[in-house]
Amino acid sequence: MTYTIHGRYESNFEPLADVFLQQLPKSPRKGGQALTVYHRGVPVVDIWSGVRDKAGTPWQADTMSISYSTTKGVLSTLAHMLVDEGVLSYDTPIARWWPEFAANGKHGITLRHVMTHESGLYHIRQMIQNAREMLDWPHMLEVIAAAKPYHAPGERVGYHALTYGWIVGGLIEKATGRPLAALLDEKLVQPLELDGCYIGVPDSELPRCAEVIGAARYNPNPKPPSKVAVWRQKLISNALALTGFDDTTSADALIPRGMSRFYLDEPESLQACIPGANGVFTARSLARIYAALANGGELDGVRLLSAQRLAEATRVHNRQRGDVVPMAMNWRLGYHRIFTTWPKTPHAFGHFGYGGSGAWADPSRDLAVAYTVNTGSGSPMGDLRIMRINTAVIQCVES
């Protein structure tokens, strides 16, 4: 099987199309992906290739893929819109709208603390006993309301890998009195005419969802690691320890108990509300959201954010290395820095996700990029595939 690109791209983006194909697995029928790029407010690349499931079904124009933490950028955009409308405030304690949230010393935590990952509420492993609890939205809001911060707000930075969604999403529901999915549809999906953007997929849309291929599955009798693998892991852990990084803190934020038997890509999980990690999108929908942000907050006559709100939302708030992710993410309000192999992108912002997906905007280049993929590799912050694609996009724009 030879991979074929479907869709369209402008002629000066042909080098990008070549790089795009190179990111697919070498073995046939092992994965699929989609890429959409907006430049100066218009789509210049809208392509897809590969397969959407293990049976080898071709990836289609309307295929959606779970995009893990890429969801946080979409959720953050919705929160900024509500701040613009005066419904929310960055610096008012969350407990004003959600009184129960004040428990255990959280009375002073604000939306800004959460969106910059400075609230101290990231240790999900200490909050729940089993990952399946994450499927129960009302229960998780109670868990978050009762949780005790790991540190005082503003004192440190720790990536809220899973908790971000319940805090921000819960606040949105408490402040508006409306379901998160309904607000997402009203504020983003309908105005921008998005063709695939869900946090909680309805029954009718499940057939469009790509299957994650190559994701690790639980093995009750795993093969013992080799001596080389053990040595390598010990070397990495020791090197990180020398920098002051504690990998147990990272595990607390990223891996709740029972996660080895819990899969975010299964139908039950796709239909749940886990707004920090289970958004399902087309690349086209993600690109349209970020194209508006790249274009001063507006796209095709639809304004998402005021210029003032956009400037505040995308200003770098902290540059220090975090306790969970051992690198400086240069957190804005809900968005992080964008990684490329070259050139630098100091004005770009967005969010990447486990498995390699990501979406971002660069107002200085009037550029928006979105990439969805179903091959299940990578890290919580994406992987090298999206970095290579990002670099190729910029090179095509600037050539």
UniProtKB/TrEMBL annotation:
Pfam families named among the record's database cross-references: Beta-lactamase
Source species: Fluviicoccus keumensis
All copies of domain Beta-lactamase-related, residue ranges: 21-387
Name of this chain's protein: CubicO group peptidase (Beta-lactamase class C family)
Residue spans crossing the bilayer: none
Lineage: Bacteria, Pseudomonadati, Pseudomonadota, Gammaproteobacteria, Moraxellales
UniProt xrefs under SUPFAM superfamilies: beta-lactamase/transpeptidase-like (SSF56601)
Lineage: superkingdom: Bacteria
